[in-house]
C-alpha cells in the first residue's frame, strides 16, 4: 500500500501535523479520489477546539472535496477513473478530505461540469447538503418540501415568502439558491449591505441589514410582505437570530437551525416547528435524498442554477489549513477558504 500526506489532529483538542498515511482501497460501491481541492468549514476548527464527532486519533478532518477518480470498487457504474468529481467527506480517516486521497461511496459523487474549477467545486458539498437536506428531507431530518430537482417540483412554492438569516454565509448562499429553484418569493435575507449585489444575483429579493436590531426583524419582514411566513432558515443560529427568526414565523411555520436549539422556552409554541439539520449526505438517514440530489447536481451546476461560493486559495497545501481555520474562526465575509492537498510545500 503506498502512502500519502494527510493533515491530522494528533489527539483530542491537540495540535495539527502533516503525516504520512496509507492510501485506502475503495470497497464495493466506492471510489478513491485524488484530492485537488478541499474547502474549510467552521466544523473543522470546532472539532479541533472542542473534540466531537471523532472516534479515532490521530484524526484527519475535512468534509469538502474535489478531485480525480483514480480507482473504482466493484459495481461502480456512474463514474470512471479519470473523471473529475466533487463529494462530501465524513468524520473518519478513510473519508475525510484534508489528505491527498479519500474514499467515498459512488452514489454521493457528482461529476464536475467544465464551468467549475476544482477549487470552486470543493465549496459545494457541505453547504449544499446543509441547505438541501433541511428543506427537502422528510421529517425529522428536514421540513419535507418538494425537492426542486425532481420532476414537476420546480417553482412549486411560487408566491410564498421565505426568510433566510445570514444569506451571505456559505450555507445561506445555498439556501437562497434552492429557495429560488423552489419558487419562493419574496426571498428575504439578513446580511451586510456590502453583500447585497451578490445575494441578489443568487436570488434574494430583499436584503435587510444584519446590523439592524433583531427585535425589528418581524416588522421589517411585514413591511415587505403581508403573506404569512411559513419557512425560515437560520444559517447563523445564534440565540438572538434563532429567537428573531422564530418570531417572524406565522402559525404553522417551520424554522430550520444549523446549531443547537436556543429558542427561549417561553417563546416555544406547538404551532411552530424547529428542525435542526445534520448537513451530511454521508449520514445513513440522509443517504436516499443525498443520492437523488447528487444525481441531479451536475446539471444544476452546469446550468448555473447552483453556483459555488467565492474562493480564496490558501498557500502551503495541507500545511496551510491550520492558519486558514484560524482565519475562518476570526470571521470571513461571503468567502470560502480552499486548500490544494497535492501542493505540499
Ligand atoms: N448543522 C450542520 O450540519 C451544519 C452544516 C454546515 C454549517 N453549520 C454551521 O452553520 C454556521 C454557518 O456556517 P458557514 O460555513 O455558512 O459560515 P460562514 O460562511 O463562515 O459565515 C460567514 C458569514 O456569516 C455571516 N454572519 C455572521 N453573523 C451573522 C449574523 N448575526 N446575521 C447574519 N449574518 C451573519 C456574515 O455575513 P456578512 O459578511 O454579510 O456580514 C458572513 O458572510 C456555522 O456555525 C457552522 O458550524 C452547520
TrEMBL record:
Q: Which residues form the Enoyl reductase (ER) domain?
A: 14-339
Under the heading Pfam families, the entry gives: ADH_N (PF08240), ADH_zinc_N (PF00107)
Q: Which organism is it from?
A: Phanerochaete sordida
Protein's UniProt name:
Medium-chain dehydrogenase/reductase like protein
Taxonomic superkingdom: Eukaryota
The family database entries (SMART domains) matched by this protein are listed as: PKS_ER
Citing just one GO molecular function, the answer is: oxidoreductase activity, acting on NAD(P)H
Q: Which InterPro entries match?
A: ADH-like_C (IPR013149), ADH-like_N (IPR013154), ER (IPR020843), GroES-like_sf (IPR011032), NAD(P)-bd_dom_sf (IPR036291), Trans-enoyl_RdTase-like (IPR047122)
Amino acid at each position: 500500500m503506498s502512502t500519502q500526506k494527510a493533515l491530522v489532529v494528533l489527539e483530542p483538542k491537540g495540535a495539527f501535523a502533516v503525516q504520512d498515511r496509507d492510501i485506502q482501497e475503495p470497497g464495493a460501491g466506492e471510489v478513491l479520489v485524488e484530492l485537488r481541492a478541499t474547502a474549510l468549514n467552521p466544523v473543522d476548527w470546532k472539532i479541533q477546539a472542542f473534540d466531537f464527532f471523532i472516534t479515532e486519533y490521530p484524526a484527519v478532518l475535512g468534509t469538502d472535496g474535489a478531485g480525480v477518480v483514480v480507482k473504482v470498487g466493484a459495481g461502480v457504474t456512474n463514474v470512471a477513473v479519470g473523471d473529475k468529481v466533487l463529494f462530501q467527506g465524513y468524520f473518519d480517516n478513510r473519508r475525510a478530505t484534508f489528505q491527498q486521497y479519500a474514499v467515498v461511496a459512488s452514489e454521493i459523487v457528482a461529476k464536475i461540469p467544465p464551468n467549475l474549477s476544482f477549487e470552486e467545486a470543493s465549496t459545494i458539498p457541505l453547504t449544499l447538503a446543509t441547505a438541501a437536506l433541511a428543506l427537502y428531507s422528510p421529517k425529522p431530518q428536514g421540513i419535507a418540501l418538494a425537492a426542486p430537482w425532481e420532476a414537476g417540483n420546480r417553482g412549486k412554492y411560487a408566491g410564498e415568502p421565505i426568510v433566510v438569516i445570514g444569506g451571505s454565509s456559505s450555507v445561506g448562499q445555498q439556501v437562497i439558491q434552492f429557495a429560488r429553484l423552489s419558487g419562493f418569493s419574496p426571498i428575504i435575507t439578513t446580511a451586510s449591505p456590502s453583500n447585497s449585489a451578490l445575494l441578489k444575483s443568487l436570488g434574494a429579493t430583499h436584503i435587510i441589514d444584519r446590523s439592524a436590531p433583531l427585535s425589528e426583524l418581524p416588522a421589517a419582514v411585514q413591511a415587505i410582505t403581508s403573506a404569512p411566513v411559513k419557512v425560515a432558515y437560520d444559517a447563523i443560529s445564534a440565540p438572538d437570530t434563532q429567537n428573531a427568526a422564530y418570531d417572524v414565523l406565522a402559525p404553522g411555520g417551520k424554522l430550520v437551525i444549523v446549531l443547537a436549539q436556543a429558542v427561549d422556552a417561553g417563546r416555544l409554541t406547538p404551532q411552530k416547528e424547529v428542525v435542526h439539520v445534520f448537513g451530511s449526505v454521508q449520514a445513513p438517514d440522509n443517504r436516499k435524498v443525498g443520492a437523488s440530489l447528487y444525481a441531479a447536481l451536475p446539471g444544476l451546476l452546469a446550468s448555473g442554477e447552483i453556483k459555488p461560493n467565492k474562493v480564496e486559495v490558501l498557500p502551503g497545501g495541507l500545511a496551510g489549513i491550520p492558519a486558514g481555520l484560524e482565519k475562518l474562526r476570526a470571521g470571513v465575509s461571503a468567502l470560502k477558504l480552499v486548500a490544494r492537498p497535492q501542493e505540499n510545500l
